[in-house]
Design a protein that fits this description.
Keywords: Iron, Iron-sulfur, Lyase, Metal-binding
Pfam family, one: Aconitase
CATH superfamily of the largest domain: Aconitase, domain 3
Structural class: alpha/beta
EC number: 4.2.1.3
GO molecular function, one term: iron-sulfur cluster binding
Number of strands: 27
Number of domains: 3
Helix content: 25-40%
Protein name: Aconitate hydratase
Bound molecules: alpha-methylisocitric acid, iron/sulfur cluster
């Protein structure tokens, strides 16, 4: 039986285990990526581990999320990151140079390589045949130190593409169709591998829109094979030498298969407030639209903005609709400006932002109260835009621009009929990508060789070893699909404390319950209780670190999102799975006790734990963890565990062979 592309890349990089689905494997990482809001902890942890030089082939530090620098704390973070990149040997992308995934795709993404990034949309370069995975920052730290990255061998699902996209249908609609079919948890524990005759009709930037937003399925990664289109794209970028042919064997054995006929795809839209709340655009036609935004790592590239510019040529945006373009990279802005498209769009009423994540996490362009915003982004979780009762829809640049022209949601095919002279702008790449790229600083040009820390940059707190007895209050009971945006919001008022954990932790779960942080501190220990898919969304390890800082000992949930579960282990919080009945029965404020000798049970591989509630009734909770994760948990988290190993205090060794 032949191999999938995923298996081939994993096998090439395998340092531990074998490729049996569900078993833990360790892989070598070639490239790492980090960004401004997760990067500070990455480097503070690198420093705390006493590491002195990046060991991976390539490491890149981007400054992309909070580039408006509303507060000196953000600017201090950026300066610290530049100094860390220089000190330890990473590329540094200056604030405003663009979103990590876009800039990485343009400059470094390479077929056949593995990549780990402290951002959940790290899988973006899967569109070029790179196997890229998002993780918490501490995993990135260890990988940069030369350590392996460990995951459960995912199921590999084949998404077979047939046919070609019809007019006005786009790659965004393909991934929205996947979300419509599979939901935001349909990809947990899976890698989606795209194959079939439809692949060749998609250019690389279209493929990266799909691999980027595969994250919203909860997937570990998504990947395409390489072909003439990949070669062509790399040539246009001036990186022809990075081309390698990679693909699955013809008789590759997949765990599952999905078929999508591209010719059946039509313009789709995700309604508020979940990326899988997908319907055909014409179902919501007529909804008045107050704001339209084109941008983000999903649809902020040159090739995403150009169709909008063409649709707006000689037209105006509706008087009641504001339209903002936030390019994914400075290279895209620069090229569109040189070609005259920026002025064309400005003349049509568009405002241009610097190349940043910004509005995607509620930094700038916060929608008005009780208004509708159409965005080409990937997430519309409630409140993420910066206002609690938001109505954010996710769609393609074409659907967004049609709404900006009409002032209400309209299927662009219907707008074309109405206007008579509006043509499908199609998909076009530049002959050559010619951005000047001065904002990307290579390690050998680095201006710094020592860390520069501002007053807001603190230390990373450590947890004690796991104790025999674990008990405390059920501090908060939550529903299904709680996102990391609920746990630690990323809006500008809070994001500025990402390097200051004591301060940041005051905002823990404030979107669910304003009083949570104080209650947790007063209770001196306790548990979180949640439904399915707890911790979906971002990779931010702060969503585990801050509860840990407040004394939370563990989370009892029906199921967990992959990255967040790894982060819970990394910060010494026990993630226990409970069934629906137990979830329904536990009430906030109940006294919870894990009856077993927890430390001993965790280390010895015990899977079933007895949970006693209010000294009155008992239930069973399940710990699904590898031997390595158990050691990390018992040692009080990965930082303590790795330090202990380096000091020879436990079985194991330094990050280089962790
Ligand atoms: C996001 O889209 O939520 C973020 C902001 O990019 C996060 C990273 C972070 O919280 O810093 C992600 O996706 O991992
Ligand atoms: Fe930035 Fe939004 Fe992409 Fe996250 S999803 S990396 S915030 S653009």
């Amino acid at each position: 039986m032949g191999q999938t592309l995923t298996e081939k890349i994993l096998e090439d990089h395998l340092v531990e285990g074998d490729l049996t689905t569900g078993e833990e494997i360790g892989i070598e990482i070639d490239q790492v990526l980090t960004q401004d809001t997760t990067g500070t902890l990455v480097w503070l942890q690198f420093e705390a581990l006493g590491l002195d030089e990046v060991q991976t082939e390539l490491a890149a530090q981007y400054c992309d999320h909070q580039t408006y620098q509303f507060d000196f704390k953000n600017t201090d973070d950026h300066r610290f990151l530049r100094s860390a990149a220089g000190t330890y040997g990473a590329h540094f992308s200056r604030p405003g140079n663009g979103i990590c995934h876009n800039v990485h795709k343009e400059n470094f993404a390479a077929p056949g390589k593995t990549m780990l990034g402290s951002d959940s949309h790290t899988p973006t370069p899967g569109g070029l045949g790179e196997l890229a995975i998002g993780s918490g920052g501490l995993d990135v730290t260890v990988a940069m130190g030369g350590g392996a990255y460990y995951i459960e061998m995912p199921e590999v699902v084949n998404v077979r593409l047939e046919g070609e996209l019809p007019e006005w249908a786009t790659a965004k609609d393909v991934i929205l169709e996947m979300l419509r079919r599979l939901s935001v948890k349909g990809g947990v524990g899976k890698i989606f591998e795209y194959t079939g005759p439809g692949v060749e009709s998609l250019s690389v930037p279209e493929r990266t829109t799909i691999t980027n937003m595969g994250t919203e399925l909860g997937a570990t990664s998504s990947i395409f094979p390489t072909d003439e289109n990949t070669k062509d794209y790399l040539e246009r970028l001036g990186r022809a030498e990075d081309y390698v042919e990679v693909g699955p064997d013809e008789d590759a054995d997949y765990d599952d298969q999905i078929t999508i006929d591209l010719s059946d795809i039509e313009p789709l839209i995700a309604k508020p407030s979940m990326p899988d709340n997908v319907v055909p655009v014409n179902e919501v036609e007529g909804t008045e639209v107050d704001q339209v935004m084109i941008g983000s790592c999903t649809n902020g590239a040159y090739e995403d903005i150009l169709p909008a510019a063409k649709m707006l040529e000689g037209r105006e945006t509706n008087k009641t609709t504001e339209m903002i373009v936030a390019p994914g990279s400075k290279q895209a802005s620069e090229m569109l400006a040189r070609e005259g498209w920026v002025s064309e769009m400005m003349a049509a009423g568009v405002n241009f932002s610097e190349a940043t994540c910004g509005a995607c996490i509620g930094i700038g362009h916060v929608p008005a109260s009780d208004s509708v915003s159409l965005r080409t982004f990937n997430r519309n979780f409630e409140g993420r835009s910066g206002i609690e009762d938001d109505n954010v829809y996710l769609c393609s640049p074409e659907v967004a621009t049609a709404a900006a022209i009409k002032g209400e949601i309209i299927d662009p095919r219907n707008l074309a009929d109405e206007l008579g002279d509006l043509e499908d702008p199609g998909f076009e790449m530049p002959e050559k990508y010619t951005g000047s790229n001065v904002d990307l600083i290579a390690p050998d040009e680095a201006p710094d060789d020592e860390l520069i820390k501002g007053p807001n940059i603190g230390d990373v707190p450590l947890k004690d070893e796991l104790q025999a007895s674990l008990e405390g209050e059920a501090l908060l009971k939550m529903e299904d699909n709680i996102t990391t945006d609920h746990i630690i919001p990323a809006t500008s008022d809070i994001l500025k404390f990402r390097s200051n954990i004591p301060k940041l932790s005051e905002f823990t779960l404030s979107r669910v319950d304003q009083d949570f942080a104080q209650r947790a501190l007063d209770a001196d220990g306790g548990f979180l209780v949640a439904g399915e898919n707890y911790g979906q969304g971002s990779s931010r390890e702060h969503a585990a670190l801050c509860p840990m800082y407040l004394g939370v000992e563990g989370v009892l949930a029906q199921s967990f999102a992959r990255i967040h579960k790894a982060n819970l282990f990394n910060f010494g919080l026990i993630p226990l799975e409970i069934d629906e009945e137990t979830y329904a029965k536990i009430q906030q404020g109940d006294d919870i006790e894990i009856v077993d000798d927890v430390a001993e049970a965790v280390r010895s591989g015990q899977e079933e734990f007895t949970v006693r509630v209010n000294d009155d009734w008992e239930a069973t909770a399940h710990l699904d963890a590898s031997a390595r994760e158990r050691e990390i948990l018992a040692d009080g988290g990965k930082l303590s565990h790795t330090k202990k190993q380096a000091e020879g205090g436990s079985s194991g060794a330094t990050p280089a062979d962790d």
